[in-house]
């Protein structure tokens, strides 16, 4: 395919030639655990890497290779690895890179299970985890050392929407032994491509926007071919065994075909919802990169193509008022996960980030009253109407009138 071919077209066509598969518009689903060899020599050569024969589905299948080539292309990396979950991607990558005595520098705010993996998993194997406010790159300059093997951040961060200047971090890590790994789950490559900004690796929970329909769990690591080979043949094959299923490969290939259309609408809806919330008297704070008063608005404009479908906000009152607001919603579902067609809301402190203690929530800048909204693809008027009736009921129930100031 011509190298000027646009993202949307590549998301639909890259790497697949229907003519080689009887004209089948979609690639076959390889429902197999193993691949037969013509003879022992061919099998031995395959294990030695001297031919391209598929061996066993823990190492890959033809449709997995297609999916990986397509994702690598969309993220601007040399290679990709598909995994059984986002956590499978993160753990397979980290286990492949670090050894006892090494240090990982991670941003202050992380998705709950990533935090738990570092804090309760890697730490006990003699790896030092240093949390650092990476929104200020000077902080990284001051602490990075030759022990640092990974610098890790989500941007926007789950759940509080803090952004990291990816290019500025890459300028620092590029002269060191540390790999800069960015979790791009909130954006998808349609909105942000960290490798183009200098990141070494990108990880994804493909469970979210890439699949897009809330019907699968999967993940990706994308980056240079050499590192990806290590992650596949060591991290995934030997350490985590986090193998994506044949069905999920097919579902993600389908999801990617509409990624751009869905993301455009997620962003359009989220902008309208964010403006609605921002103007409401019972909403005390809204964190959305597309609002001009968002603290890191300029950075959002610089590195994200659009502002995304995720909003964090707080209603006035306390944890109880926030919970009651969620309970009042009728169409919007109270559920974790994000990036689905359905609008979902959840309370991070008691759900996605409940792996943090109360003290850790405070240290990691996750407010106990924060609510997280994943704006879906329903008609935006219906989304806003549901939020509106819930806020009205909240004000009646708690007799709340106006936000202070
Ligand atoms: O293993 P998963 O596919 O669930 O992906 C893990 C993961 C990695 N990075 C980010 C930024 C994520 O948000 C996730 C999963 N997050 C879900 C959520 O925040 O709702 C998990 C539900 S507990």
Distance between the termini: 57 Å
Q: Which radius of gyration do the C-alpha atoms yield?
A: 22 Å
Give the helices and strands as they follow along the chain: HHHEHEHEHEHEEEHHHEHEHEEHEH
Helix content: 25-40%
Q: What ligand species are in this complex?
A: ligand 7XF
* Structural domains: how many: 2
List the main descriptive attributes of the protein structure presented here.
single chain, 405 residues, alpha/beta, Aspartate Aminotransferase, domain 2, Aspartate Aminotransferase, domain 1, 2 domains, 7-stranded mixed beta sheet, 5-stranded mixed beta sheet, 14 helices, 12 strands, 39% helix, globular, binds ligand 7XF
Report on the structure:
- This protein has 405 residues and is α/β, with parallel strands linked by helices.
- The protein folds into two domains: 7-30 and 61-257, Aspartate Aminotransferase, domain 2 (3-Layer(aba) Sandwich); 260-404, Aspartate Aminotransferase, domain 1, CATH 3.90.1150.
- It is built from 14 helices and twelve strands.
- The protein has a seven-stranded mixed beta sheet, with helices on both faces. Strands 8-9-12-11-10 form a five-stranded mixed beta sheet.
- The radius of gyration is 22 Å and the shape is globular.
- The termini are far apart.
- The model has no long low-confidence stretch (mean pLDDT 97).
- The structure holds ligand 7XF.
- Ligand 7XF binds at residues 85-87, 111, 113-114, 154, 158, 183, 185, 205, 207, 217, 219, 336-338, 352.
